[in-house]
Structures are given as C-alpha cells and as structure tokens.
Amino acid sequence: MDIDFPLWLRAAHLLNFILIGMLLRSGWEILSSLPRLWWRNDCAPGTEWLKFTKRELPKEEGVYTSLMDEKSMHPALALPGRENVGLGRHWHGVSVMLWVLNGLVYVILLFVTGLWRRIIPTSWDVIPESFETLKVYLSLEVPGIEHFTPYDSLQMLGYTFVIFILAPFMILTGVAMSPAIRARFPWYVKMFGGHQGARSLHFIAMVLMTGFIVMHVGLVFLVHPDYNLPHIVFGDVDNARFAQAFVIVVATVVAVILFWIALSYWTLADRARAHSILTGFTEIGRKIFLNGLRPRSARQGSFTEKDISEFHWTNGLPPTKDESEEWVAARDNDWKDLTITVGDDLSGNSRELTIEDLRALPRHSYIATHTCMQGWSATSEWTGAKLTDILALLGPKPEGARYVLIDSYGLAQKMYDNRAREPFYSVIDLETLNEEDSILAYERNGHDLDIHLGAPARARVESNHGYKMVKWVRSIRWIADYKEYGDGRGGTREDSALQAFNGRI
Question: Which residues are listed as membrane-spanning (predicted)?
C-alpha cells in the first residue's frame, strides 16, 4: 500500500468534491437574484462590468427594484433554484462552514503527516519544470509517467495556488460582504474595493475554482488514468485494479451529482422545513463569529463624503393608496398629519410621535454602506434618532420585553407561497437595538429622506442587511417573542423570502 494516499486524504477529497459543488451551486442561486456585477459601490445603471441578463436598467431611482431583476435558475443547476435566494444563502452558509472545516482538517493533517512536501514546492526548479510540462499539455501530448511522483511540477504549483491562495481568497472576499464585518471593520471591506469590489473578486475566484475543478477531474481521466484512479480509490498503484477503480469513480461522481440535485428538490418540496433546519445550523457560525461585532459607523474614518454614492437602488416601492391611504394623504400634506406609534405590546401602553417630535430628539449621523441580501450596495450619510432614545419616551424597558418590532405603512413585495401581500415588519433583538448605529433615519446626505428610500422615516440597523431596515415606518413596539407575529420567523423577509432572522451575513 502506498502510504502517500492514506484513507483520510481520499476521504477529504471526496468531502471537498461534495461540498464545493454545494458551495458553487448555492452561489449561482445568489448571483441569479441580482445577475449583475460592478466595481462601483453605487451599482449605477449601465456601469456593470458583467451581467447575465438582457434587461436594461432605468436611470431613474426608485422605479425598478432589485427583486424585479431576479432571474430563475433550474434546480438542476442552482441550489435550490427557482428564485429562492433566501434558501440559497442558507445553503451557501452551511456549505461554507463544512467546506472550511474539512479544509482545515485536510491542511492540518498535511503538515502533521509531512505530506505537504508533495504539493508545496521546495525548490525554484519547479518553475522551469512546470513550464516544460505546460508545453507538453499545450501540444496535446501527455507527460511521461516518470514525472508523477506522485505529482509533476505543474500540478504542485496548481495545488499550492488553489489550496493556499485561491481558497483562502474566496473566504476573505466572502467575509468582506458581511454587513457585521463592514460595520465593525470598514477598512477591511474597503481594502477589496468596497462591497462590490469584494463581490466581483469573489465571483472571479469562483470562476477560477470552477475551472480548476473541471480541469482537475478531466485530467484524472485523460492523463495516466491507470495510475490516477487506483490511487484515488484504493490508495495504491496496482494497475490490475484500474477497471474496478474506474467504475467506482464514475459511479461516485454520478451519485454526487444526483445528491446535489436531490438537495434542491428536497428544499423546494418543503421550503419552510428547509428554512428551519438550515438557519438553525448557520446560526451557530453567526453566534461564534459575528454576533459580538458592534458597528461603529459614526466613529470610523474609512468611509467619508467622497464615498457617498451617486445612485441608490431600492427593494420595495412606496405605499399606494390601496395599501395605505393614511401614508399617501400624509405624503401629499408634507407629512404634517403622519404619526409614528411608539408602543409596548406587553402592557398596551403607547404614544404617537410626529416627524417634528422625532427631529427634536438628539441627532445621530454617520456614513455607512447599505447592502441588500441580493448583492447591491450604496453608501450614504444617514441622520436620525437612536432607537433607544425613541423607546425611552415610553419609560424603562418593560418587564419581559425581549425584542422590538418595527412595521411599515407599506406591504411586502411578494410572499414566497403566493398568498396576499402582508404589511412589512421586522424584529430586532435587544443587542442590536442597543448598537449605537441603530436609528430611525429621517435624513440622507443632509436632505430629507427620499420617498422611495423610506420617507419620512426608516429604520437603520447597520450590523444587518437591508431587509431588517423597515421603510415608511408606522410603529416601533416592545414585544416579548417574535414567534407570535406573522409566520413567527422575525420579519416579513423572513416570512416572505425565508431569510434568516439574524441578518449579519
């Protein structure tokens, strides 16, 4: 038996193959929800460097939402497919966690066992040797078997790049798209060119990883398969077992592909069930790595007025007369008749605030980048009153209050199960409430809030994605348990699109 191919090594390769497929397919589902890529952080129409849609974006703000841009991918290609970005994001989180864990075990064992010497070059001779091997491949010939001990120089460079450069780069750019990371460490995100820079670089890394996998699997069958396949399956180079190894490898690849597709159809068969299981698993990662990060947008110096965006996307359209006669009438009367309820659902205590009452509270301003879970972003200066100051108007926090519910004069854009649209609401926990950059904003960039961005007042919770930030706010209320509202998931986007209650990534 060749000890250079122990069981743990072969098992790690198989797990990596399964998980990277889940990772890529769920990533494609996320990309299909906004099939455009920018380097500019304001995502202005016509400035994409790459798009996977023929739709042309209108130049006017507020008339075209990102949900209108969503594309549907077949479940055979995406995980889960069929315009389910919320579930795609959960599968991406599960896949990332397991993929990183498998990769860490693999790398640790490589160094513990000394097998790292097989893939990490220890001599500069690897460069001219790999060039000679490349010329052989480009001539459509096959290098001699004597070069594979067990890998030739070109393979060593390739594996070193993928394992120690490309894979970590995918992780680093993925982390940079987390609002919790951006709100706490804005310099880190800006290092990649902002949210859109990180998103585009992450896409390029995905293309490279996909290309490597296709090439890697193809060469296994094309270059000395009688040597490769017994190694992969049995760990030895007994050529007499080639046919057996070939059948096992092909059957395994087919089984894995069927497993990937089965995951999509299992998810779509009961999306609420899948949401419950997947978010429970991914919340483990958020608790460990993100929940303790608190935003400091007002105290950071990375984002300045120079970064303020020229264009701002939106998701959701302002309420119509059919949706809220009260809001439309107040809009037409310069918000003079509009009030925001500050309440306590535990005791029934409440009071009404006018916009002038809201403006009379201490002002809090900062520059921050807003991100939608679909992928667009925009940087603005937001000004408003802290949510804690607003709720303090009712007195001390009520006994038993564990969350704050914020609801809107507007409705959800659509519900995942096609039922009638419901009033938009979002719930935040006490830790998020007490973050210094959790505010009810009434100004953007020094001017009254735009109608399409939530006028006269909208919630801002900078540690989370935009779906937690209710526009056209109707009320802010203490509650005991979010499970008693809506579908019990903690918000309209959680109910209507099966997003996670915790929107920190």
Answer: 96-116, 156-181, 201-223, 243-268
Check residue 219 and give its pLDDT.
85
Over the stretch 8-29, which tens digit does the pLDDT of each residue have?
A: 999 999 999 999 999 999 999 9
Output DSSP code: residue 162. Answer: I
Over the stretch 61-70, which tens digit does the pLDDT of each residue have? 999 999 999 9
Distance CA 151, CA 99 (A): 24
The end-to-end CA distance of the chain, in Å, is: 46
On the question of pLDDT at 310 being above 60, the answer is: yes
Domain enclosing residue 303, as ranges: 297-497
User: Which residue, of 288, 321, 356, is where some domain finishes?
Assistant: 288
Residue 504, pLDDT > 80, answer yes
Cα 165 off chain centre by? 21
Is residue 483 domain-shared with residue 417, that is, in the same domain? yes
On whether both 37 and 78 belong to a single domain, the answer is yes
Taking the C-alpha atoms of residue 162 and residue 137, their distance in angstroms, rounded to an integer, is 19
Residue pair 497/85 in contact by the 8 Å Cβ criterion:
yes
The larger pLDDT score, comparing residue 240 to residue 184, is at 184
Cα–Cα distance measured from residue 309 to residue 341, given in angstroms and rounded to the nearest whole number: 32
At 36, give phi and psi (nearest 5°): -140, 150
Residues 48 and 37: beta-carbon distance below 8 Å:
yes
CA 28 to chain centre: 11
The count of domains in the chain is: 2
Looking at every residue in the chain, the average pLDDT score rounds to 94
Which residues, in sequence order, are bridge partners of residue 475? 341, 407
Contacts 24+ apart (CB under 8 A), 417-424: 422/486, 422/492, 422/495, 422/496, 423/474, 423/492, 424/316, 424/470, 424/471, 424/492
> DSSP assignment of 211-233, as one string?
HHHHHHHHHHHHS-HHHHHHHHH
Handedness of CA 493, 497, 502, 505 (dihedral sign): negative
Q: How far apart are CA 204 and CA 200, in angstroms?
A: 6
CB 340 within 8 A of CB 474: yes
Q: Output the pLDDT for position 2.
A: 47
Distance (Å, whole) CA 183 – CA 187? 10
Taking only the tens place, the pLDDT of each residue in 363-416 is: 999 999 999 999 999 999 999 999 999 999 999 999 999 999 999 999 988 888
CATH number for the domain spanning 362: value is 3.90.420.10
CA distance 50 to 117: 39
What's the whole-number mean pLDDT along residues 268-285? 97
HSE on the CB side for 442, CA within 13 Å? Answer: 18
Report residue 156 CA to chain centroid gap: 32
